[in-house]
């Protein structure tokens, strides 16, 4: 015998989410009106940094290069921009300054901010810089910058630049008159295939290009020039600007003339190649010992909705090696359900792990060195359907859980071990099927429990050491998340149910309404479920049917909706009322305002006994032991299709609820 498990989607209105301070997203409109090196508007490129040098204690700081703010404490520039241009030696950190919010070099405005440099990181093992290979440097500022409309980090790249892709270069370079520009300028430039760059001047480019560089430019008089070094080449992707490259060098006009060639290409440091190095350098230099030092980074704007199918998760492979003594992760999440794994990472022998998970609405940060782990618990529930920011971090054997800016838990493991070794992949929102047994072992729960209680909600702004992890290597059963996710839910084709209202007494009249769109001709719409009986309304091969049972009798019947074609994949409006006449119940079904069906059944719920209202499969039909659980299998929030009429569930269910039901393809099971 086969049983048809039909699934539904209950949807509510959703809008697009946008973070207050997303990287690479200036507050003013960014229509690209600046071409051929024209002056930039104020706050149009708020991540552009000015690198200042002084060569001796007696000299003032003067303009040297450009750079890009990528973090509240870090600026990315080229390595040669940290060197004395006369000797080639790296400048001491006290002889470097970073200025942000600058629009003109000949004016000081109230939005200008100057910062001392605390650390200088370069790729060379000894901190040296040789030639133009590995032309990249990371400057750690002594204090965190204040994020304003004039000062905002740019996003790091989610992928490498491509030939032909258009970018925009920003800087204070030389003008057409070979004078340093006093105003910030910007110009669009396409990435150029390396062969084209070499063919333009084999002698000039032949020995200078390597895999860490790429070419860009027009050869039309607009190019990068002296003074542009270190400035960013940004590309517009997914609504934000990403740092694709940094100005490294251009060819001289002629031997002995250091001025740049106006009709030549420019060479740019390929930022994506150094992403692992950037993240590792930030992780190495960051330290914290108190909760006051734990602050979320500028958000990335990426947002994912989990629970849209089996083993819903993100997987990150392209991440730097985690430091054994510390980690620092942060994310934002929103869910209405009490269970689920938000983050998981482990080592290959399964002895060390990091986990962030919900259980009974409480958020836990767990980690294990292999000698016995610890789980730090929040002080209250977080399955309230609201957005929350969370930081879960560890230094040596002490872990911290910070939620919405408040430290909720801190604790340390027993023993002397202080190093924890986990490797990629990192999992967010769940794990893949092959990792399910390992996750269950780490959390000391049954695999079946994890499969029935996957994370159902939204996660955004996933950061490691305050830097976005970037695009996932793999995204399984996820969709883009919305700012407003309803408490209503929908089911995938794996079946399941939602307990919409638990244990209420039926009035003399009960009413429920819904919009549904059949993608399968059969499936259960809803059921009223008591201890001694139940009522189920279903679609059966495109017809309307019911099943009713009390302690003595069971009955079922199917009706053909004359004039209505329920095989059509379109939205239908249905209203159902059940009237109690003591000796019998009268059921009325109205479909699309035209078809009306009325039938009588024996009483299926004794008077003054409670019933529960379920959407989807009847729990007894599914043989689910815990029938009071409000989230089973693949139930999850979802957005609302436009143009549907609101339908109210009857007056016995305060407050009224709008239901929009989506029937997905049924699944035949033995």
* First-last Cα distance: 6 Å
Number of strands: 43
Mind telling me the CATH class of the largest domain?
Answer: Mainly Beta
CATH topology of the largest domain: Jelly Rolls
Q: Compute the gyration radius: what is it? A: 31 Å
Helix content: under 10%
User: Which structural category fits the helices and strands?
Assistant: mainly beta
Number of helices: 6
Shape: elongated
- Stretches with pLDDT under 50, minimum 5 residues: 1-20, 28-36, 483-489, 622-670
User: How many discrete domains?
Assistant: 4
Give average pLDDT, whole number.
Answer: 76
Reported CATH architecture of the largest domain: Sandwich
Provide the β-strand percentage band: 35-45%
What summary fits the major beta sheet?
Answer: 8 strands, antiparallel
SSE layout and pairings?
Blueprint: E1 3-5, E2 8-10, E3 48-53, E4 62-69, E5 74-77, E6 96-100, E7 113-122, E8 137-141, E9 166-171, E10 185-192, H1 194-200, H2 202-205, E11 213-216, E12 232-237, E13 240-250, E14 252-254, E15 257-260, E16 266-270, H3 275-285, E17 303-306, E18 313-316, E19 326-335, E20 340-346, E21 353-359, E22 362-368, E23 374-381, E24 388-395, E25 398-403, E26 406-412, E27 423-428, H4 436-443, H5 447-452, E28 457-464, E29 467-468, E30 474-476, E31 479-480, E32 497-505, E33 509-518, E34 523-530, E35 534-540, E36 543-549, E37 554-559, E38 572-580, E39 585-591, E40 595-601, E41 610-616, H6 619-622, E42 660-663, E43 667-669
Parallel strand pairs: 33-42
Antiparallel strand pairs: 1-43, 2-42, 3-4, 3-6, 4-5, 5-8, 6-7, 7-8, 9-10, 9-12, 10-11, 11-16, 12-13, 13-16, 14-15, 17-28, 17-31, 18-27, 18-30, 19-24, 19-28, 20-21, 20-27, 21-22, 22-23, 24-25, 25-26, 28-29, 32-41, 33-38, 34-35, 34-41, 35-36, 36-37, 38-39, 39-40
């Amino acid at each position: 015998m086969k049983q048809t498990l039909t699934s539904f989607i209950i949807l509510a209105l959703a809008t697009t989410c946008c973070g207050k301070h997303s990287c690479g997203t200036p507050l003013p409109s960014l229509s690209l009106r600046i071409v051929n090196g024209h002056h930039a508007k104020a706050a149009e490129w708020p991540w552009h940094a000015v690198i200042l040098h002084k060569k001796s204690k007696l000299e003032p700081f003067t303009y040297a290069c450009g750079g890009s703010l990528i973090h509240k404490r870090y600026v990315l520039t080229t390595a040669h921009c940290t060197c004395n241009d006369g000797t080639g030696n790296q400048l001491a950190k006290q002889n470097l300054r970073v200025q942000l919010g600058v629009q003109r070099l000949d004016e000081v405005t109230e939005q200008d901010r100057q910062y001392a440099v605390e650390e200088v990181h370069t790729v060379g093992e000894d901190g040296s810089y040789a030639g133009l290979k590995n032309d990249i440097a990371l400057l750690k500022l002594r204090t965190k910058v204040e994020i304003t409309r004039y000062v905002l980090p740019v996003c790091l790249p989610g992928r490498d630049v491509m030939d032909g892709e258009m970018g925009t270069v920003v800087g204070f370079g030389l003008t057409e008159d070979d004078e340093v520009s006093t105003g910030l300028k910007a110009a669009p430039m396409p990435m150029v295939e390396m062969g084209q760059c070499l063919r333009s001047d084999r002698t000039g480019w032949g020995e200078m290009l390597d895999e860490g560089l790429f070419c860009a430019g027009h050869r039309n008089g607009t190019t990068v020039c002296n003074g542009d070094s270190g400035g960013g080449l940004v590309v517009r992707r997914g609504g934000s600007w990403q740092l694709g490259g940094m100005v490294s060098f251009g060819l001289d006009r002629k031997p002995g003339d250091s001025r740049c060639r106006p009709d030549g290409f420019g060479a740019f440091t390929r930022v994506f190649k150094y992403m692992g190095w950037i993240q590792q350098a930030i992780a190495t230099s960051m330290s914290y010992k108190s909760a006051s030092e734990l602050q979320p980074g500028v958000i990335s704007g990426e947002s994912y909705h989990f629970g849209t199918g089996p083993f819903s998760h993100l997987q990150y492979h392209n991440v730097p090696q985690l430091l054994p003594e510390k980690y620092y992760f942060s994310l934002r999440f929103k869910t209405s359900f009490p269970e689920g794994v938000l983050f998981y990472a482990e080592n290959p022998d399964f002895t060390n792990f990091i986990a962030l998970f919900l259980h009974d609405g409480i958020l836990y940060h767990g980690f294990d060195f292999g000698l016995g782990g610890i789980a730090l618990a929040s002080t209250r529930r977080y399955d309230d359907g609201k957005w929350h920011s969370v930081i879960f971090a560890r230094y040596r054997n002490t872990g911290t859980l910070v939620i919405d800016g408040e430290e909720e838990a801190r604790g340390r493991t027993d023993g002397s071990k202080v190093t924890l070794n986990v490797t990629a992949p990192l999992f967010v929102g769940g794990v893949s099927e092959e990792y399910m047994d390992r996750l269950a072992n780490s959390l000391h729960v049954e695999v079946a429990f994890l499969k029935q209680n996957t994370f159902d909600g939204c996660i955004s702004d996933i950061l490691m050491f305050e830097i976005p992890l970037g695009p996932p290597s793999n995204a399984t059963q996820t969709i883009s998340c919305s700012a407003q996710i309803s408490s209503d839910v929908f089911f995938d084709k794996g079946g399941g149910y939602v307990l919409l209202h638990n244990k209420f007494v039926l009035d003399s009249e009960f009413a429920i309404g819904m919009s549904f769109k059949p993608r399968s001709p059969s499936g259960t719409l809803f059921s009223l479920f008591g201890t001694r009986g139940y009522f189920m309304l279903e679609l059966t091969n495109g017809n309307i049917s019911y099943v009713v049972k009390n302690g003595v009798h069971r009955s079922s019947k199917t009706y053909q909706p004359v004039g209505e074609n329920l095989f059509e994949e379109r939205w239908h409006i249905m209203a159902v009322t059940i009237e109690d006449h003591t000796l019998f119940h009268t059921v009325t079904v109205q479909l699309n305002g035209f078809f009306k069906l009325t039938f009588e059944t024996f009483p299926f719920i004794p008077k003054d006994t409670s019933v529960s209202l379920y959407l989807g499969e009847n729990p007894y039909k599914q043989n689910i032991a815990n029938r009071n659980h409000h989230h089973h299998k693949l139930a999850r929030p979802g957005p609302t299709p436009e143009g549907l009429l609101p339908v109210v569930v009857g007056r016995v269910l305060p407050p009224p609820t709008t239901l929009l039901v989506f029937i997905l393809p049924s699944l035949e099971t033995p």
